[in-house]
From TrEMBL:
InterPro entries for the chain: FAF1_2-like_UAS (IPR049483), Thioredoxin-like_sf (IPR036249), UAS (IPR006577), Ubiquitin-like_domsf (IPR029071), UBX_dom (IPR001012), UBX_domain-protein (IPR050730)
Name of the protein this chain belongs to: Fas-associated factor 2
Species per Swiss-Prot/TrEMBL record: Anaeramoeba flamelloides
Protein's UniProt keywords contain Coiled coil: yes
Keywords on record: Coiled coil
Keyword Coiled coil annotated: yes
Amino acid sequence: MTDFFQESDFQKEKEKEKEKEKEKEKDNIFIEEEEEKLLLKEKQKEIKNSSKDQKPIIKHSKRKTTFFSNVFLNLKTILTPISENVKSTFLTEFEDSFGLDHPTFYQGTYKEAFRFAKESSKFFVVYLHSSDHTSTSDFCLRVLTDENIIAFLNENFIFWGESIRHPSGFLLTNKFFVTTYPFMAVVSTNTRTRSQVVKIFEGQINADQLMTGLISALEENASAISEQRIQENERRSIRQIREQQDREYQESIERDQERQRIEFEQEQLQRIERMEREEKIKRKREKKEGQMLELEQKIQNLKPEPDPKTEEGVIRLRVILPDGDKISRCFKKDWEMKSIFDWVDINSNKTLKPNKYYLVKNYPKTTFSDKSVTFGDAKIENGDSLMAIKK
């Protein structure tokens, strides 16, 4: 039973701690709230007020409602990047009024500046500027121009400012529940605690007071920043490993693609070479078959050798081949020279190619290439020797 009551007391204490944490969270001011809810409330207030008023001031109510409607429509200026001209409007006006000596303003939207501070593992300082407030000029001329303040802010914080006349600046006055000016807030960018305000400066303040407050904010939240830097380093390390892995994977893909390309080109080249070889063999075979066919036709068309004993006008001729072999045969004088060329083609034992040689008579020196003339016209006599000479 004792254990039961002890356990029950422990649970009650735990529940009390949870309730305390919840109350703490309620007291925290968070920057990333829903902008639409806030603007909707403002708009509903204006509509409610206008409904109570009489007709003479309806025109005034409409003008107010239109103003908040325009603010609502311009809500995206806080959340999305804007042009360089709009980004630099506040800085230009500030420098025109107070000079060039001031902390370095981050040029971009509120969300861009906050993201940059988070990536840099630094606190984010927001300055809301009211040109109509009596303390603003003194703060800008005496505090924001102080060399120590400028150096400390530039080294340890990401500094961003905006005029409350701008829609984004006006919206932030509601987010921070601004009551007076000058206004400056130190915002933690630690991921665990979200975007929590850790220090607020409102109203008239001198350089020493601001410096003390900034140092205090750093010291009190040093562990959070340290933890954030460790987390950011871990994320950066993981990101670098992933990027390295992605690069290696991409390089591997590119190597595979290059290897496949080379293999494909080699295959294509081999295929072309193979086709050329096959085509060459085919042409060679067809040529050989054509030569064989032509040779068979020559054998069929060659006239039988005449007998000099029984026939008139018969001459015997001898042909000396390039390899030194001698062949002889009888022809008739009225036959065309084609008959002796065909006969040489048939009996040259492949030492001569058709139409690639001349027949030459030594005395008188005569070269014969015209196959259409007769032996008689060519003045070839019985017993003549002819030499087969390659062209």
